[in-house]
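Following up on my earlier message about NDP. Here are the inputs again, as you asked, copied directly from the submission form:
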Amino acid sequence: VNNALMDEQLLFESALLLGMAVAPVIWWTGRKDAAPYGRHHTNSGAGSRAVKAENMIAWNLLTLPTRITWFLMECPCLFFMVPIFCMGRYANLKPPRILAALFLLHYVHRALVYPLRMRPSPKRNFPVIILISGVCFNIYNVYIQARSLSNFRSYPPTWLSSPQFVVGCMIFLFGMVTNVWADSILISLRKSSKGDAHSPASTSPTESSSKMYKIPMGGLFDLVTCPNYLGEIIEWLGWATATWSFAGLVFFVLTVCNLLPRALAHHQWYLINFPTIYPLKRKAIIPFIL
Ligand code: NDP
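Thanks, got it. Here's what our run produced:
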């Protein structure tokens, strides 16, 4: 039993180091070419990924309906957190249980609520290649988070009143509210483009060449192009703080390396597709900075 525990500890620590090692690769890949889904899929207007004809056929053949794909991609975190967590030696303690509940709160929303609320383009499905990479990442991530919480990182009973936990939870919840709010605005834009009479007053009447996108306005959208990504990054910063763990830090770093380049690509896409009217003062993801 001891040998098996030692072996797993080695596996766990190697997985954490692997995550950190892969982070710059994810960053570099995202800067080179935005992952080909949504506006960066084929035929999504100027500035979208330029794909050769034969590749286009492959991408287009290997797709699935978007809502189902989001559910399949995110559900490992929802379904595997509890069983993996329960295998840990500290699984019956309150601090790791509350931290696991925070993680589940995010994934109940991401895997169940978000796919039901979203308004995917009727003309475009979701590439299976992104589904596969998303599932691999989520299986990896739920393993390191759950094992860290209930087995490899021990939390004293006083953890719930520690500054890391209290401040971390506040940051996490602020990030989640920002993320959900921003995604709701984007959802309402798509709704209004289908002729909803009660479209938000903040909506720009001008549509992009692909006729599926509008310029979001109001709140944080006046400062940055991607407040949903900013909220997501803040969330996992809060998670890394509240868990005060290497696993939490790995998740935060990977999220930054994934979403920051994508936000820059989104920003560029808006500048190309709304050349005269996109607000020039707006940054991509960090207000006033980037
Ligand atoms: P996007 O901002 O690209 O799109 C969100 C939704 O809104 C999509 O359905 C999109 O349609 C639609 N949309 C976006 N902009 C407009 C617009 N201007 N007008 C009309 N509709 C618009 O986000 P993602 O799809 O990349 O991500 C969705 C959520 O998942 C986000 O909350 C994000 O933070 C999270 N996420 C987290 C990751 C992580 O590493 N933790 C990784 C990726 C996503 P369409 O798809 O057709 O473009």
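One observation from looking it over: Residues 189 and 214 are 7 Å apart (CA to CA). Hope that helps, and feel free to reply on this thread.
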